[in-house]
Amino acid sequence: MDAIQQHMIDSYRAAQRGELPPPLPGRHDWGVVREARDRRRFEAVIAGRPARGRRRAALRSLFAGSGGAGGAGGSGASGPTGRSGAPGRSAASGALGRSAASGRCGDSGPSGV
């Protein structure tokens, strides 16, 4: 039995009893996703971890650590703006990205973390 069939049975039963019918399947799914996200952020703040930007900071440190000088297009990859082709490859953008992430995340947690 799928969700629609179960909903039809529950609606019929509610009509027989004079009750309100249940909500349609999938009606509140995005609300549940938002509540789960908010709960995860709340628990991160309570534990003293940054509430936002943790995945992006982890990916940035992962890609910045694997960059190195031995990559393809080493010295001539930078254009007139000073950026390389891949994110996190240049030392200036990596340092800027980490300091911006720590400044943004440091505001939500205790000082010194």
Molecular structure report:
The chain is an all-alpha fold. 56% of the residues lie in helices and 0% in strands. The protein is built from 4 helices and no strands. The model is unreliable at 73-79, 82-86 and 88-109 (pLDDT under 50). The chain is elongated.
User: Which parts are unreliable, with pLDDT below 50 for 5 consecutive residues or more?
Assistant: 73-79, 82-86, 88-109
> What is the helix/strand order?
HHHH
What is the averaged pLDDT score?
Answer: 72
- Gap between N and C termini, in Å? 51 Å
The strand count comes to 0
State which percent range the strand residues make up.
under 5%
Number of helices: 4
Q: Which key features would you list for this structure?
A:
113 residues, mainly alpha, 56% helix
Topology summary:
Layout lengths: L2 H15 L11 H18 L7 H14 L23 H16 L7
Task: Describe the structure in brief.
It contains 4 helices and no strands. It has 113 residues and is mainly alpha-helical. The protein starts with a helix and ends in a 7-residue tail after the last helix.
